[in-house]
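Interim report, section 4.2 (structural modelling).
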Amino acid sequence: MVNLTSEQTERYSRNIIMREIGGKGQKKLLSSHVLIIPGIYGELFASSLYLAAAGIGKITVIGNESLISYLENFKNEVEDLNPDVKFNVLPETHLPNLQSKIDVVITTLPSKHEYILNNNFIRGVPIVLGSVSDGKGIMTVVSDRKRLQTYISNHTINNLFPTTAGFLGILQVVETVKIILGHKHLDEPERLEFDLLSMEFKTTRRDET
Amino acid sequence: MIPFYSINQLTSEEKSLLKNSRVLIIGAGGLGSPVAYYLTAAGIGNLGIVDSDVVDLSNLQRQILHRTSSLGVPKVESAVKRLKKINPDVKIETFNTRLSRDNVMEIIQGFDIVVDAVDNFSARYLSNDACVIQNKPLIEAGVLRFDGQVMTILPGKGPCYRCIFPSPPPANAVPTCQETGILGAVAGVIGVVQATEVIKLILNKGNPLVGKLLIFNGLNMEFITVKASRNPDCPVCGDKPFC
Ligand SMILES: [Zn+2]
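Predicted structure of the assembly:
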């Protein structure tokens, strides 16, 4: 991995000073590639901005022509927040031709989950998965397809409180950064459940399930 | 076709409540960024933003309201530019100044709810004391490393910041985020909780974090709530204030 420039050392100084990241971790983040398979706009915006701020080198969003043109301005915003980041929206047919391997997938139900399940290109890649409804949400990390299949059955979504999708999207970034850095993270059936209206939270651990 | 859901569950009555409310955000940094972003997106009609800094390169790993092209620009100015793109109708009053004993009472006067998004103790105690005196709800938060905490202060209905932390720690006793670092997304999580509390208060929905301190540990992906009660001897909101 190449060394950090003096500008990068300054930009990421609040990351680098933490022992959980350091210069080595920052270089890892810069050379990583996160794929977003969007389910909800609010989540897509929130995760993209915070992934970019952290210095995730490549962010790819899967979307159709209308999403690509919709996100044209947003691409400029993300890359102006951090020019170290390449943010691209690609049709799903491009996925197998991507030049670099994917480190983490972020997605929210309902999305094209059958596509994730059937795509060999992302086999074995950890998926930071979320679902939301009203002010509530669940987040977990899945890398086993059988578990994913169980998880996505019977999923419904209801009207969202204005901050629910953004909250989930940012939590997914925290988990993504930890996965890339090799820290302990949620692992289905471990889950975080939240309710922003009652402000109640529950993290289920593996030994409790 | 990817299904997209950007469902707005707000009724027209709720929308007008948000549109007519006035929220002051003290600080346009790591916490102020998501707070301002989400309050604007939710349709809050009138915002006030207090910050005396200019955008610095080391801010951009967490302050999503600012851009590389805005380096050196006053944060309040950079914030307005960004927020107007989200909602061109939002009215924003900017205070390009440091919160002080001399200006705090006047600045908060014109607002219904105050959000504390600062990184230093003197501003934290100033806004707490001023909000208690003017009987205004205050959403208080702090973040460091992978950790954060939030509480909602409703003067007279629950503890204020001084009830729990009676006086500022000695200078240099508590490290700053410059010394210990902060993961940007952790500030994001806490800022969104603050914005959520504001919206809940305006819409009178759910249970606010009154008498409860919400503590987030990002490394464990865990939130815990610690109960707190009013201190009758609190120098600000107690039975005999300022005695
Ligand atoms: Zn008090």
